[in-house]
Write a structure and sequence with these properties.
This protein is an alpha+beta fold. It has one domain. The chain has a four-stranded antiparallel β-sheet.
Amino acid sequence: MSGTVIVQLTCSQCGEFTAHTVVYAGRLLVSSECSRCGYIIRRESHELRSDYVRDLEQRVASKPHRMWLRLVEHPIRYAARLPTSVLTKPIRMSDELKSFLRRR
């Protein structure tokens, strides 16, 4: 998961249960912003950077196995979706990296 999601959370600043904009890079939480008071929580850059690199390495290393499982479980669906996935993966990775770099 990458990108921005709107979720309902209790703000640690204003104490209200309200909408927050939550930003992810890969599977990592980058930041959260309260829509009521504007309070932003961001992870430390050095911590986020090392966690992101570790997460990316793990995802890249496990990709062949995950692809194999999809092929075995649903060969026709896998074959039908593979061309689109191959074309869109670089775009999705670029969007994820941009989100990560923008929010650091």
